Amino acid sequence: MDFFIPILLILLLMACAWKRLPAYDLFLTGAKQGLHVALQVLPNLAAMLCAISLMDLSGLTGQLICLLSPVFLWLGIPPEVTSLVLIRPLSGSAALGMLENLLAAFGPDGRIGLVASTIMGSSETIFYTICIYMSQSRDRRTGYAVPCSLLGMAAGVWLAGVMIP
User: Counting Cβ atoms within 10 Å, is residue 74 exposed (0-12), middle (13-18) or buried (19+)?
Assistant: First the structure.
């Protein structure tokens, strides 16, 4: 397994030589395109990360957690998982950190750990993905992408609360 990437690189270079393709020039072209994409995406990511930080610093996230905990409890979701449900559509790394804390505190085999793991596996960082996609798309209208994604996540969250004993 340690040699997988070097072997893959050698195979790619051999394929380029066999097809008589300029491997180095193609690499440079791809790197330039990658940097161009990164520069286009950066302002959107900065705006989203600022919005998340403002939500946390203003206390809005804490207020939402307090407000929605009874609703989630009624749906079968433990109150400890509420913050994970709210942050998952915004930030994958923050949600992963929350999952790690939940698993350390409550264990991976307890109900809280199982529900949290199911929510992580059945949902996506919706707004992050939309942000990246829309920064590269010519048509900036999201249409039904966000509502349908949120509905799908809500179904996954609800099923995690109902199906896990």
Answer: exposed
Dist CA 128 CA 119 (whole Å): 17
In order along its 165 residues, the chain shows pLDDT tens digits of 789 999 999 999 999 999 999 999 999 999 999 898 888 878 877 887 788 788 889 998 889 888 988 988 888 899 899 989 988 998 888 889 889 999 999 999 999 999 999 999 988 889 888 877 877 777 777 788 889 999 999 999 999 989 988
pTM of the model: 0.70
Q: Could you tell me if 12 and 23 are in contact, meaning their C-beta atoms sit under 8 angstroms apart?
A: yes
Tokens of 64: 């939402």
Q: Distance (Å, rounded) from C-alpha 23 to C-alpha 144?
A: 41
